[in-house]
Amino acid sequence: MMKMKKIILLLLISSPVFAQQSKTMQEKFLAFTMIGNVEDQEKQYDEMVKASPIDAAKPSMYEEYRAQLATGWLTKGNFERYWYYKNTHPKFNPLQFLYLSYALDHLLDEDKNMSELEKVSKGILDDLQNGVLSDGMGRTQPIMEVNAAANAKLGHTEAALEMIAKSSQVKDNMRDMRYFKDQKASYLNRYGIVMLAAGKYEAAFDTLSKAFKDAESNPAMVRTFRLAYKKWKGTEKGFEQCLKSLQEEAYRECYAEVEKMYIAAPTTTLEGTFPKRKPEDEPMTLFRAKQPVKEISMVDLNGRTVNLDDYKGKVLALDFWSTGCTPCVAAFAGFDRAVADYKKDIFQLFVVDLFEDEETVRSFVSKKGIRLDVLRDEENKAYDVQGTPMKIIFDPLGNIRFYSSGYAGSTDREYYKLKSMVEITKARYKG
Predict the structure, then answer these.
(1) Does the pLDDT value for residue 317 go beyond 50?
(2) Are 1 and 355 contacting, i.e. CB atoms less than 8 angstroms apart?
(3) pTM score, two decimals?
(4) Which residues contact 91 (CB under 8 A, 6 or more apart)?
(5) In whole angstroms, what is the distance from residue 88 CA to residue 62 CA?
(6) Of 348, 269, 267, 338, nearest to 311 (Cα)?
(7) Strand pairing partners for 298?
């Protein structure tokens, strides 16, 4: 299978300028993107420009670096440095554009500097409309939603209502696709923010109540729901119980769904297959567990060998991912919540990176602030995983009790599903 570093490189070379560069220059830029923080990236960029000043006859010189720096500074919430590089008019490759949209998502959830956020999101939307930027990633919708919510928070109600309505008319509607982190949940939260600004308190309350009930929700939504409850009910009294009741209902539904997936017969080896859509369909292999988990070892990000037999007596979860797999990383926020719940319990989760070298994974984990326990299986030898994300749950005796593929679609649903798997495994374990 192709190394994920090569896949990332293919994304990068989709930029016309990048495509014309030599292999050495491509590798040099890829190494630049691996630098752990934007401050160090900027230092290296300054040294490059000092050593080889920009040629006036080649205005595109270093533009992919400037686009990278603009993206990095926006991710950190430094609007001044973002505009410094953005105003040099660099061309953003698809991966950089994707991270621009992620930065807007994060900044809105942080609820800081809405004036700048509105300006940046509008600028990106204008660039998309004028053909300066192109969206091959299906991210125009969430950028419009961010702009609508920022306008709502600034009191620009008409602009907010107009933009949230326009966002639903986008041709490439990806809200119901379980690919990007909290895509639908984020929209519902932003819709609620706009409805509150417009004084439509009942609409906001009903929308967010249903979102929590359906597990189409995330922690950022709680603040908006609290305000909607207070505006609609006239008091905040009873909010916590209302929220808890909706969350418990969502968890029970996920539990019942997950319970049907439990593998009752004890087995330490298994070929996991994707469920047939039709009786005549051929089964599609997801992974092959050819040896008991107690016989498997992998390496962590420090190069140390981790023997999975050391976790005998615990419910063990292995989640297989790669840095280029968007839905894989989208699931991590839900995993964080589950891990926090079981800190003093018999549970261990490892997220196992496939296909990539240590430097690539370490850089990504550092930049994304991933706190989960990471292992690596660069050659994909342990379970011959055919697609990510892929999760396998073992009981304390090493029997496979669950496996599932794909992203659940929201942080809350991902959390509920993993928690259900752990609770069901614990309840049925005969030690």
Answers:
(1) yes
(2) yes
(3) 0.91
(4) 15, 16, 17, 60, 63, 64, 67
(5) 11
(6) 348
(7) 306
Alpha-carbon distance of 405 to 194, in angstroms, equals: 34
* Residue located via tokens 């639908």: 184
Q: Which residues of 65-159 form beta strands (DSSP E)?
A: none
Residue that the structure tokens 């850089």 belong to: 363
pLDDT(17) > 90 = no
Alpha-carbon distance 32 to 367, whole Å?
13
Q: How far apart are CA 328 and CA 389, in angstroms?
A: 5
Between the alpha carbon of residue 96 and those of residues 61, 75, 146, 281, 325, the distances in Å are: 17, 11, 18, 39, 15
| H or E segment and range at residue 201 | helix 201-213
**403 CB contacts (<8 Å, ≥6 apart)?**
261, 263, 270, 272, 286, 287, 390, 391, 392, 393
State how far the Cα of 138 lies from the Cα of 145, in Å rounded to an integer.
13
Cβ-contact 371, 289 below 8 angstroms? no
Output the DSSP codes for 141-199.
HHHHHHHHHHHHHTT-HHHHHHHHHHHTT-SS--TTSS-STTHHHHHHHHHHHHHHHTT
**DSSP H/E element including 270:** strand 270-274
Q: Which band of pLDDT confidence, cut at 50, 70 and 90, is reported for residue 112?
A: confident
Q: What residue ranges define each of the domains in the chain, with the CATH number in brackets?
A: 4-255 (1.25.40), 270-428 (3.40.30.10)
Tokens of 377: 């299986």
Percent of the chain with pLDDT over 90: 84
Q: How far apart are CA 112 and CA 77, in angstroms?
A: 9
Dig out the tokens for 77 from the structure. 């919430």
* pLDDT greater than 80 at residue 56: no
Closest CA to 380 of 274, 286, 304: 286
Q: 3-state DSSP call for residue 299?
A: strand
Peptide bond into 389 cis (omega under 30): yes
Q: pLDDT tens digit string along 40-54?
A: 999 999 999 999 998
Cross-strand pairs, 348 = 316
Q: In this structure, are strands 284-289 and 297-300 parallel, antiparallel, or unpaired?
A: unpaired
